[in-house]
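User: We ran a pulldown and think these components assemble together. Before we commit to crystallization trials, I'd like a predicted model of the whole complex to look at. Sequences follow.
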Amino acid sequence: MSAKIIDGKEIAAAVKAKAAAGAERCRAAGRAPCLAVIIVGEDPASKVYVRNKKRACEACGITSLEYALPADTAQAALLALIEELNADDDVDGILCQLPLPGQIAEDAVTGAILPEKDVDGFHLVNVGKMLSGKDCFLPCTPAGVIEMLKYEKIPIAGKHAVVVGRSNIVGKPAAALLLKENATVTVCHSRTANLAEITRQADILVAAVGRPGFITADMLSPGCAVIDVGINRLSDGSLAGDVDFAAAKEIAGFITPVPGGVGPMTIAMLMKNTVKSCKLRLGIE
Ligand code: NDP
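Assistant: Here's a predicted model for the assembly, 285 residues in total across the polymer chains.
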């Protein structure tokens, strides 16, 4: 039997509709939520992401401010801009599109954004709060993964979730959030021995490796839920996930496609976080 294809666009639309309703309540209470997006340099993929974020803001009734800085911007100049945005009461969320040019340390930038405006959830204060189960801004991609599982009513508690990848922006936080949902979590990485043996035990498999088709059908147990975070550009220009989708969908019970799976969720969760920040700052529900 073929897997149910999880429609990330549909779920993202539902999240954005809720964000839009929240933005409306903010406007009624004084002002629209506002997200400031900074991009440094001309990376084409980053430009696409920034454009998509702007469009999503427009669709949700969120004001978006865009700061496009030249590739040779000094770190001090970027930090000065962040300080300005931190101090601006009308700005609810600040994000700096990664990756940054070599002269700028990413840690310095994520650490400079006020945790209360860190809608990407990358500040160490928010990372610590997430790990301790406190309310905070959750990183958008892993939070999107959980949102998809819940939307599809895929049970998480008591299930074995295997996360392949341990980056700070996807693998580790995805594992932490699955643990918070009471899954039994295994995290795999490039030094994991007998990877396929472990992935075959997964009820929920999250792939965040960055290698097209890395997870093959023989690595899955029948009926499992496969969440493919990977976004890989192939030589013909098309996009592929980390999972061999065509073969995996014949084994899995649920599977996300690429594109149209986790990708749209990331921006939707950013909208949700921005509205949450504005509501907190306006003191409304
Ligand atoms: P990183 O390159 O930072 O991390 C990749 C992880 O995969 C590492 O932990 C690495 O292990 C692990 N890995 C590499 N090779 C193997 C292997 N042979 N066996 C097991 N594990 C391996 O990538 P990101 O986490 O930033 O991104 C992962 C993918 O998700 C990419 O395709 C990226 O484009 C995509 N992505 C998608 C987003 C979305 O919105 N949908 C958002 C962010 C990322 P080790 O730590 O040992 O090196």
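The first strand starts at residue 4 and ends at 5. That may be worth checking against your pulldown data before setting up trials.

User: Thanks, that helps.
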